[in-house]
Amino acid sequence: xxxxxxxxxxxxxxxxxxxxxxxxxxxxxxxxxxxxxxxxxxxxxxxxxxxxxxxxxxxxxxxxxxxxxxxxxxxxxxxxxxxxxxxxxxxxxxxxxxxxxxxxxxxxxxxxxxxxxxxxxxxxxxxxxxxxxxxxxxxxxxxxxxxxxxxxxxxxxxxxxxxxxxxxxxxxxxxxxxxxxxxxxxxxxxxxxxxxxxxxxxxxxxxxxxxxxxxxxxxxxxxxxxxxxxxxxxxxxxxxxxxxxxxxxxxxxxxxxxxxxxxxxxxxxxxxxxxxxxxxxxxxxxxxxxxxxxxxxxxxxxxxxxxxxxxxxxxxxxxxxxxxxxxxxxxxxxxxxxxxxxxxxxxxxxxxxxxxxxxxxxxxxxxxxxxxxxxxxxxxxxxxxxxxxxxxxxxxxxxxxxxxxxxxxxxxxxxxxxxxxxxxxxxxxxxxxxxxxxxxxxxxxxxxxxxxxxxxxxxxxxxxxxxxxxxxxxxx
Length: 476
Known about the structure:
Blueprint: E1 6-7, E2 9-11, E3 14-16, E4 21-23, E5 29-31, H1 35-48, E6 53-55, H2 57-73, E7 76-78, E8 82-84, H3 86-97, H4 101-121, E9 136-138, E10 142-146, H5 156-164, E11 167-171, H6 178-189, E12 197-199, H7 207-213, E13 216-220, H8 223-227, E14 236-239, E15 244-248, H9 256-264, E16 274-280, H10 282-289, H11 294-309, H12 311-324, H13 344-361, E17 376-377, H14 379-393, E18 397-399, E19 406-409, E20 412-415, E21 418-422, E22 438-444, H15 446-454, E23 459-461
Parallel strand pairs: 1-5, 10-11, 10-13, 11-12, 13-14, 15-16, 15-23, 16-22, 21-22
Antiparallel strand pairs: 2-3, 4-5, 6-9, 7-8, 17-20, 18-21, 19-20
């Protein structure tokens, strides 16, 4: 898959090899669409759109189900790459994205599940449309789907747009274009109208032109898109970042397995993976309880009494952990400022956080963990990511997991699941979403928790925890 193999564009139903290409790490060369091509192809599509037809919604759903089944289990002809079976796809994902086979299979299954959710929830886009004698309908505009590199489950955006009846232009990530190329191959194989599909890899500078050239846009990406290429686009659906957080109630025991899963499942690459864990302080619980009825106050007082009884045990656990921990950061653990003599809730947070760290440290990298398999990284990318974290760790940050962040094993490089304790919600790693399992733990009052929640798209509730009221969009 290396050398002069070039993954082409798909324009007006025909494959086209561009003169402008970039290498995909571990994969082929990738054709890039220049801005002038985007403008010309959009104009041509609009000129002939009145004559274009799309299968009915029922038939579209049938074709999408067939395509997803082929994507998951079949032999798919991928232009310039040949016929690719599931083993070949898994190997391509390992080489280009560092994904272990178990994760490829899991994510492929999630695509099928998501299609059924769309089938059940999405409105009938053909309602009121003119249906031809052959059961076809007109094409409902042109939708751009711009994909990220972190996970191919975002191909759900392609399924969503295709089910709606729109012509779809796919802009794959230049770092991982092979999963979307496989889906395009599967769609064409089952009989999807080729003139309604486009495959337009492009440089970042071309994204604004793609947005202007299309009627609707589903764009996956970070804050920079909202302030840059996507600024002012009224029809744009910007998906990301998530900056997911978990709120842990004051005085409540936590389930370390549950918290570790929220951090490390899916190799930490989903925007729903927790990057911040907020522990409410005991004092915050009393302040909130004063606004509630007497029964709630009594319940909160009981929780505090139980927490006080645990203090001696917690201190012993902290001492035991400190004897065995060797954090990867150069500063190590320090008694400066006497952090271990802090208030009772801070000691509880440290102990609970270390329990989570123990679970994270137990995740196998090589061979892949059976529950939470992790992705490998290109050496240079992993080094840059580790430097990014290290540069932002101090002051006020302490690593609780004991493995080095950068782990080399079996000829592969990994970024180990990592848990960091920080002193304040203003620390630069709070709310920092990275494409591997890294989460920060912070203790704060209700105001601080609300601030973190306000900056998060996904606010999870920890198992066996009580939480303050949080904004709409909370998930559990």
